[in-house]
């Protein structure tokens, strides 16, 4: 395995760990689904899977993770806008 292949492999495994940790923390009630940290962990993990899957020719997995990252970014946008909007009294 060359240096690039090794780097892509490390990225893929790191992405798996990030997404798994995010899910464990969510399941244990340590993170909320709409928290920035949870969503960013999913976006970063998905980005790693996109690189790994794309490099290895696993196009369905790469596409799934593009959608996964898109959902995370969309949710981050919703949460950001909701926190910037003052509550009406």
UniProtKB/TrEMBL annotation:
Residue intervals of the CBU-0592-like domain: 9-83
**Which InterPro entries does the protein's record reference?**
CBU_0592-like (IPR058058)
Keywords attached to this Swiss-Prot or TrEMBL record, sorted alphabetically, are: Membrane, Transmembrane, Transmembrane helix
Membrane: is it a keyword of this entry? yes
Q: Which residues cross the membrane?
A: 6-25, 37-55, 61-80
The keyword S-adenosyl-L-methionine is annotated on this UniProt entry: no
Q: Which Pfam families does this one have?
A: CBU_0592 (PF26604)
Q: What is this protein called?
A: CBU-0592-like domain-containing protein
Organism of derivation: Sphingopyxis macrogoltabida (Sphingomonas macrogoltabidus)
The opening ranks of the lineage are:
Bacteria, Pseudomonadati, Pseudomonadota, Alphaproteobacteria, Sphingomonadales
């Amino acid at each position: 395995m060359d240096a690039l292949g090794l780097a892509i492999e490390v990225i893929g495994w790191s992405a798996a760990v990030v997404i798994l940790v995010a899910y464990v923390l969510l399941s244990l009630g340590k993170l909320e689904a709409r928290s920035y940290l949870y969503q960013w962990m999913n976006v970063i993990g998905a980005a790693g899977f996109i690189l790994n899957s794309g490099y290895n020719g696993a196009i369905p997995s790469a596409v799934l993770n593009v959608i996964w990252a898109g959902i995370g970014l969309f949710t981050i946008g919703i949460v950001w806008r909701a926190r910037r909007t003052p509550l009406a009294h």
